[in-house]
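[job 4471] stage=fold_predict status=RUNNING
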Amino acid sequence: MDGHTHRFCCSSCLTVCQAIHEAGLAGFYERVQRREAEIAPPPDMPVDIDQYDLDEVQQEFVTCHGGSRREAMLLIEGIHCAACIWLIENALHALTGIELAEVNLARQRLRIVWDDSRQSLSAIMRRLAAVGYAALPYNQEMAEGQIQRYNRRVLFRMGFAAFGALNIMWISIALYAGAFSGISSEYQSFFHWVSFAIATPVLLYSGGPFLTGAWRGIRQMKLTMDLPIAIGALATYGYSLWQMLHGYTQVYFDTVVVFLCVILIGRYLETLARRNATSASLRLMELQPRMATRLIGQSEERVAVRKLHVNERVLVRAGERIPVDGEVLDGASHVDESLLTGEPMPIAKQKGDEVVAGAVNMDAPLMIRVRQTGNATTLAQIIHLVEKAQESKARVQRLADRIVPWFVAVTLMLSLLTFAFWYQQDMDTALLAAAAVLIITCPCALGLATPMAIAVSSGLGASEGVLIRNAEALERLSDINHVVFDKTGTLTEGRMKVVSFRSMRDDMDDISLLQLAASLERHSPHPLARAICELAESQGLTNQPVETLEVIMGQGVGGCVGGHQVWLGNLRLMKEKRVAFIDTYEEESRRIQQGMGIAVWLAVDGQVVGMIHLQDRLREGAAEVVEHLRKKGIGMTLLTGDSRQAAEAIRQQLGEMAIVTDVSPAEKAEAVQQLSQQGKKVLMVGDGVNDAPALALADIAIAMGSGADLSMQSSDVVLMGSDICKVLYAIELGRQTLETVRQNLQISLLYNMLLVPAAMGAFVTPVFAAIAMPVSSLLVIGNAILIRQRMRRRD
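[job 4471] inference complete, writing structure tokens
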């Protein structure tokens, strides 16, 4: 080269060196950096960060909880292990006014709750920037763009490292071949310098994130997992440089390049696997249409969904997704809500019916009046619940997070001990063994063990109409040994229907009786009240004014109508209000209750004037659920405010279970508390209205919903549809989740128990360690994804 004559050990080595020289490695490095800067700029802190303190800006992504207490979701780039979580959370908790800081490793998000009067959001974001993490308010489009930019950067760094690895391996082959066949010191030195020329830009560019991450941790006096990797890479590189400068033969530039390449490949695969694991929640986000057809007079226009306002009209053609929550103004069609509720059959919709965003219009065009848009829609609330569950932490995960900093410290100590032991025999062995220990001892699998299982399970549950509100709910579901059922709306359909109504006084006809009852019930959300009011509306009856309305939970309502005191309710209410009652009325009530009906009595001025007979029926699948729980050895109790006769009618159809009857909401809560005091792990299943106190006291609470009942704050799990068999699905999902978490922890511990001693014994090279480290994380992620297969086999 350059006019000089050299003797190369083989012609391929000459070709390699010429190719490297002609390619201009430094120039290639500069071009890649420049290209990356154009396409995927580094995650710098926004210049106008103070704008995020403005109330009008925060309206888009901040939830106010009253006063100055606020909650936000931030997108954090560069989180790749449990040590990152520990560093971010500890850095933020050191600030005043921070109530909660929870990082989700699977989704790379931070949930932050703070007191805005004591700490500004911009100061929180600056603190994150100080520890090396750029934060931006989360939204779906930004998250997708962030993921793509991060993956592109990793690909650039990985490609550059792979380019270096392919070239440096040719140099290594030449050196190893020369060691056996003979090579002059002049050419050996030349190959070392070529290896140095390749390894240096790879270390600085491809290994840059590890070096900067380690330096950030040192500045913050925190131990992160970038530190062992950086120490391993720098120590191997530095020792090789020292050997080369002093004319020695043992250099390990190829080891540095190859293990950085392998680690980057592993992290990229982890990113793809995490994205696949959380794909269920991503599919929910994709249900929201971006565009809608707005009707203005007789004309149509295509607008972005975010520009729609309440009470505007939209047209949804057959095959299109409904963009908003609303009411059908015109048209009739079937709507597919399966991806929202888990119900497989399309639902008929006509004028006056409610529809939800994300559902598919199947047959004919529908004109819809907008009721809710954006974050207020049912779909948005479902996504919020899923994401909140994925961001929450189970007890076992909190324990793992506390272990991480000690884990890193132990890693450094083991590496030092390994180096000290082998240094007495051989410097090269000591260096490589210590580097292998630093690389192979990684808590990434430990950090992913729980959040990946939670992310997969909560997303899978959402796709089946089972909304998990927090991670601990999945953990507790696996432990339950007693289930408490509410009757109306849970074991029964709760869609009461008036079978008959009759007046018992000559001066009041049947229609007047129905009108008086509907006037009392018009403001009540109870299923009985809705059934009475719907019948009155269908007959065109108008409500009479009611004064001093009084609601007695579990018994009925009362009020003053036209100067008369009127009571409407069950026998307990009549007796409590000292209404004149004859034995034949009680016999008629018992007869109706034995047939799963309900008798509602109307009294005026202390005298019974009539009775309304309402009928309910057992919910489809209730018998299957009870039988399955009985076979599993799980105890069951039926709680109802109805009479014993009504409860006995249910028990005759479903089989043996304990029954507690004639109880108020407070007494239901007391019954649940008594079961808990007996050492039982209680699951309460109710409708989320009168059952709220009992739901709050149970170890785990499941609320039956219809897609609009997401305000059930007392529950841990919400069933979107009417299928009570989803209770069994939720219990099994909890058990599969906990079992998967245990398996993941075992994988993580087994990995370290086997490979750390092997690395300390110098049986493992740094390159093998770099391969093994991401493999352990991929095993954990893959095992979490298998939850889907296990639940399908259950079906």
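[job 4471] summary: The chain has a mean pLDDT of 79.
[job 4471] exit 0
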